[in-house]
Sequence to fold (120 residues):
Amino acid sequence: QVQLVESGGGLVQPGGSLRLSCAASGSIFRVHSMRWYRQAPGKERELAASIFSDGTTNYADSVKGRFTISRDNAKNTAYLQMNSLKPEDTALYYCNAYVELWTGTTRNYWGQGTQVTVSS
Fold:
């Protein structure tokens, strides 16, 4: 079994910054891709940023140039540095990871989410 625990959310003023963390733990052999999704009230969940095991990253157009995804493979942890935050970035942010277990099975896991609110 694998658990993903997000942290770092909170209330920030427009133009401010936050850093989210997502730590994966459990029977992990290797973490392949890690992603940050977000879901604003009344909207569908959207992919904000992805990072693959080779360090390749992808971003949604709405966050490109403002958000940076990174990972620490030794800690099985992903980060999302969010700068120049806007009110429209307000959402519940979810971590997602594609994990290979010691059993040889590869599965997709989700965290429970961390709230980011951008407001003056």
